[in-house]
Amino acid sequence: MPFVHVSTNVARSSINVAAALRGLSKCVSTALARPEEVLMVKLDLDSDMMMDAVTTPCAMVQIRGIGHIDAEWNPNTVRQTTDTVGKLLGINSERIFINLDSIEGGNWGYKGESLSPRTATMPYCTVSSNARAADIDANDALQKVSQAVSKALGKPETYVMVQLNLDTPMLFQGTTKPCAMILIRSIGKIDATTNAATAATLTDAVSRALNVPVHNKMPFVHVSSNVARAKVDVDAALCAISESVSTALDRPEAYVMVKLELDNDMMIDRLSTPCAMVHIRSIGKIDSQRNPKTVEQVTATVSKVLGVEATRIFVNLDDIDAGNWGHNGNTVA
């Protein structure tokens, strides 16, 4: 079951969203030799994004799949997807990043080609926060985060792409006080030697740019859905999901952060009826013995609070190494 997530700063008003979703679904289905019935696509337009320190159109494509993501399949997948995204969204191929999980050198795409660890340099950073967009200078924040990523990872800004998601419904430690989640994907420079310094640099930059307290651990839960925000009691949904994950993973809610994205352009099986993607990241408590119960419990909760059929909900659980998780300006390990 592949999940395709395309984020871009292209204006929604300039795109035929339904046609773009169908085009992306068909493209990835063909590239990965997977039926569209098990393929979910999410398209984020009007995103605050920057690449090479400029805000001209760019895009980040993330493809998660079980199988058919390897050195043999990736070059063709990257070429097809880059070409399709470029045509559908009107973006130059040189400003399109593609990430195919798992994170390895040969699983990154740039300029329509699959790269090796020795030639790859481009980090991608996503910052999600419930900070009010009206209170933030988005362009200034993007530049500060871009500079921080470049400095922390020793990569030129020419290859740094940053996405900033503000006004995002989020809950941390059971409250909706300002909080933020930083996700960095990079080929190299992500290791026990450099992570602590990277966490400190980025935490400081984001805290200053968004006015989010530093001292505000995992797990992190990200729920994306095409359900209309107007139909959901957001605070109640956040609390229910937080409680569900806390129970499933046996973690106190003080360490659970939840992000809820509604009104997304999404489809599964080429249909835009309600669906949802749940991504859970945690240090431990993610294993073959516990996962079935976690998936069952979280699926039931999301289905109830969003009104989405369980058959149209994907759940992805990632066990994160403690050295790759930062909190309060330092890594957990």
TrEMBL record:
Gene3D superfamilies the UniProt entry points to: Macrophage Migration Inhibitory Factor (3.30.429.10)
One GO CC annotation: extracellular space
Pfam families with a match to the protein in the record: MIF
Enzyme class: isomerase
UniProt keywords, alphabetically: Cytokine, Isomerase, Secreted
UniProt GO molecular function: cytokine activity; dopachrome isomerase activity; phenylpyruvate tautomerase activity
Cellular compartment(s): Secreted
Catalytic activity entry: L-dopachrome = 5,6-dihydroxyindole-2-carboxylate; 3-phenylpyruvate = enol-phenylpyruvate
EC number in record: 5.3.2.1, 5.3.3.12
Similarity comment text for this entry: Belongs to the MIF family.
Protein name per UniProt: L-dopachrome isomerase
Native organism: Lagenidium giganteum
